[in-house]
Amino acid sequence: MNARLLPLVATLVIFLVAYAICYAQYPVMLSTRVIGNLLTDNAFLGIVAVGMTFVIISGGIDLSVGSVIAFSGVFIAVMLRDTALHPMAVFAMLLVLTTLFGAAMGATIHLLEMPPFIVTLAGMFLARGMAYVLSIDAVPITHDFYDQMQSMYWLMPGKGRLTLIGGLMLVVFIVGIGLAHRTRFGMNVYAVGGGANTAALMGVPLGRTTTAIYAFSGLLAGIAGIVFSIYTSAGYSLATVGVELDAIAAVVIGGTLLTGGSGFVAGTLIGVLIMGLIQTYIIFDGTLSSWWTKILIGMLLFAFIVLQKGLVWTTGKKRAAGG
Amino acid sequence: MPQSDASQPLLRARGVRKIFPGTIALDGVDFSLEAGEVHALLGENGAGKSTLIKCLTGAYRRDGGDILLEGEIINPKGTIDAQAYGIGTVYQEVNLLPNLTIAENLSLGHQPTRFGMISVRDMNRRAREVLANYDLSVDVTRNLGSCSVAVQQVIAIARAVTLSGKVLILDEPTASLDSHEVGMLFDVIRSLKQRGLGIVFISHFLDQIFEISDRLTVLRNGRLVGTETTSDIDRLRLVNLMLGRELEEEIRPHGKDHTATGEPRFSFTGFGRKGSIAPFDLAIHSGEVVGVAGLLGSGRTETAEVLFGVSHHDSGVASRGEGTDLHLKSPRDAIAAGFGFCPEDRKTDGVIADLTVRENIALALQARIGWMRRIPDREQRAMANDYIRKLDIRTPDAEKPVGLLSGGNQQKVMLARWLATNPSFLILDEPTRGIDVGAHAEIIRLIEDLCAQGMSLLVISSELDELVAYSHRVIVVRDRHHVAELVGNEITTDNMVSAIAAPEKETVI
Description:
The complex is a heterodimer of chains A (323) and B (509). Chain A is mostly helical.
């Protein structure tokens, strides 16, 4: 088996085993209702995690996405409250804004040769600050169009509901998988993650690729912001604090190397579902503190980091022996 | 100047100049490459080989001269641009991406697409077709990183040839290959030559040069020494061209009478490390300069690194004069034993460019006495000023970052750092590389002074006349073995060149 598939397989196995444990205790968990909720509840996280996967495969990190989601919610809520614009028009404006925001961070990272960590940390404060400027208080969203979107769903067999936002997340994942593996942009992302200098020598346009990666992450953070506003019917500048870290965790649990160059968008979906599953289990149990989610995710993350290190180590040794 | 004759060289450099601050890296170099020939480019470190290659491929902007491809002047703006002209380059460290598959590496930037999506099947089929030309049957969906270095090298060549197709530049392609793999690579080079490509081959392995090249060009200190047909030249003459000495008897100018007597200060028996330097015996007496001569990659730097514990020796013992054993497992141990080491590459291994002259000088002494007992600022300043005066380091004051000084002065700062620890045995690897002539003479004088004060030195240099000037003994290194030891009157450039060039392992003197 190809060694680079191993983290993906490990993730899948963990997911299946975890699900089997849950099913053994609570057979209800195998219903499409639970699955439908799993998708709906984690839709915004899944969408930003797709963008984060691209960023991490390229060897970078994007800390701004949580703040961008909060900003998006507040922006939508304030615009709908204060103007007569249709939500779709507001969404379009927002997505242009967040995409440009991401592109600006990407261009800064490339042109100033700054570590992505610092640049996106600045972006994180900036976006959160802009959200506060728009409104300090939570702004409720009341719009007919929102009610329509919230009530849209596809009834799965077994009475589970695949909601609009759950479905949107799946679409984003499918587009992300295609983008990663079947386009020149996707190949360039892997190439940059494998070694930026080498990639440049091989003709990869570094500046354009880096800018596009963070622009894409910004776009998806904007979409996640829309999804989150549909999910909560409000915009609040204190919302989604630390979501960027959840997204990073989902990406790593999904088998993407933090050092860049290797990973799968599909793995990130499983990573998100594992995190959602842990939460669902704790809700089902009822007696466990919700902090157990964090503890379990922490342990999983640690296990994956060790697995990755082991993998890099063994393939490195094999190569040395082969060469 | 119009080029009218029909026998136009494929690629030609005419009077190419490149100036870096402080040094002339290339001084009017001519070079020509015919279609269907393998042309070797030789020279010691700093001779200008890589600079010439970088000027040819546009990675550097040349400061003068022309580059002509098939008679037309070209000005490539970078590697990618050069590729479009038909000039492909493969570097020593494989410049491909280990995390992508073989097929992805071959097609990166040129993937076959259908409706904007990459057609993976087409991509893999094309890769298989390309590699079939190289007698390479590998699974193209494998990760490149899982292939051996030789296979990676062939794939890098395949990519370069596919994308360029006229000129192929190979920069030390065999440095990390074993002999079987070198054979495989040479088969590929020969078949490409038959297809009419012009190939520039850079290597410091003379055997390989003689085996594969049709003509060779030697550079030294940024100047063209000569271009010769390989079959018309022998090893001795080639080494002479590279090291810049005509065969002539040169007598050591002074200090001839010194003979190492009595107990050695340090002795090393059977010291070595598998894969980098074969076990050797070495005795160092006090007040003695031992020179190390050899070509680049012969094991001279490895000798120094094993002695200083930079790379761990896996055989042999070291002992201090009276016979007490020394444990040299790390540079820390070596420093504790009174060793000092100025490595070859100042920029990466030596001085810390952002720290000031004072801080750089205090570094080794501070490390020796431990971080808990900080040397007071006043003492540091006094020490720095003392060495600035003694070694004539040209700096406005001790608080200037070392990176802003010239190469020769950086070298002196590094020397000062070790002198501050008062070592009894100092190892200098190419102390005069890349510094101007005046500083050169000062460093040599300094070596002689230190030796007169009773310090033992081991000096590695590719400047043979320099070794003649100050060495009491010279060890000649070839193919990772210590092959000869010259003492007293035997130390002549002539003898050193013979020992370096001798193809067989035999005693030269």
